[in-house]
Amino acid sequence: MGVQAGDKVAFITTISLEALPTFFGVIAAGACTVPLATSATPAALLGMLRNADAAVLVVSADMVPVLADIMPEIEAMFAGRLVAIGFGQAGWQTWSDWMTSGDTRATAAPLAALSPDQDFNLVYSSGTTGEPKGILHRHGMRSRQARRPSFGLGADSVMILATPIYSNTTLQPMLATLAAGGTTVVMPKFKADAYLALCE
Which of 61, 124, 137, 162 could pair covalently with 87 via S-S, beta carbons 3.0-4.6 A apart? Predict the structure, then answer.
């Protein structure tokens, strides 16, 4: 979709095996991820999208009903640069079609040369004291955070994530586990009994 190093790609998605490779694909391209709070109001999401100045928006099927009232503004803002996970809609690229299209641009593209001062992700505060505010994290900070030896993570570590990717409580342990060569298991929605069963 023409994403270049330094661009931003916004996500309004729940955690999934489609959202996460897309998230890391954005990072590999040298672009900055902007995972937005799925619990935010439509008006707040629209405000964050305007503020972020993202080039592409990725949306999951379960978020479409939440966005119904602001969908015309979203489609105008991201005309031709929308990716749909789990649903088809006119004017949107479907994730599964996109991944199986045979388009060689992604495989032919070299990985971006990343530097510590390059933007990794832009997350927004909850907005409890006013409008949500963007907080920019760079590669150097995320790398140092993920590689802390005090976590004791290794190749045999397994981390279960049941929170969305807009949260640092998801990003930080996910990145630390993967940096250590461990395994991340994703649970799209937290339910206590299912979580305990999955832990076992």
Answer: 61
